[in-house]
Structure formats: C-alpha cells, structure tokens
Input
Amino acid sequence: MDVGVKKRLRKMSENRDFKLFVDDTREIPKGWMGARTVSDTLRFLHMFSPIAEISLDHDILFPQHGIDRYTMYAAENYTGVAYYIARMPEELRPKIIRIHSSNSGAAMTMCEIMGLNFDTTYKLYDPKNYE
Output
C-alpha cells in the first residue's frame, strides 16, 4: 500500500466514517474503500476497527479461469469474514453491516454466523443504495 492510501485510510478511520465494500467483482462505490480478497478484508478490519460500515458479498468468482457454477460454490467465499466479525469484541465491530450478495441462501448463513437479522441486513446489490 502506498503512503497516500495509508494516510487516506488513517484519516477515514479516525473520523469514524470508514466504509468498506467487500466484493471481488463489483465496482467499488464512491466514498467507500474496497477489499477484493478475504485477506485484504481481515487486514482492514484489524487495522481500522471500529469502522462505520461494511457491505459484504459472499461468492468469490473466478470467471477468468472458466470455473463453472458447481465449482464456484465449492470455491473460496467471504464466510471467513463473517466469522471474524462474529468473534470481534462488540465495541470493535462495524457499526453498520450489510450483505449484498446475489446468493441469498449464503447471505442468510452469514447473518446467522454474525447473529444478525436477515431481513434488515440483507439487500440484493443495487448501486443506488451506495450513493
């Protein structure tokens, strides 16, 4: 990470307006920091918690490798992030948690892992919800 990005991240974190968009393929919304991998997400959470908001995807796709849908569901996903958040002390958890995955069944599982209400946490991704 270059020095400019680190300074920007630190400033956002100190102001408590740090928003993290976790998704491997969708465009990162304006005003949000993006994490494309599980490792990057855990690094952000470790370094900058508590953050104001996090929006989580579930499935990590590898279309450039020609992986089919069956293989996709057996591949890596962001469930580990949900477990990490669930184990965080309450005062360090993101203040707002959203799940925006197209995989609603997996989103429900992530809500269960974190002890969150599916009806208020899950919303199918729509860029208008991030303006």
The longest helix spans residues 3-14. Residues 37 and 73 are 16 Å apart (CA to CA). The chain has one domain: 3-130. The domain at 3-130 is CATH 3.40.50 (Rossmann fold).
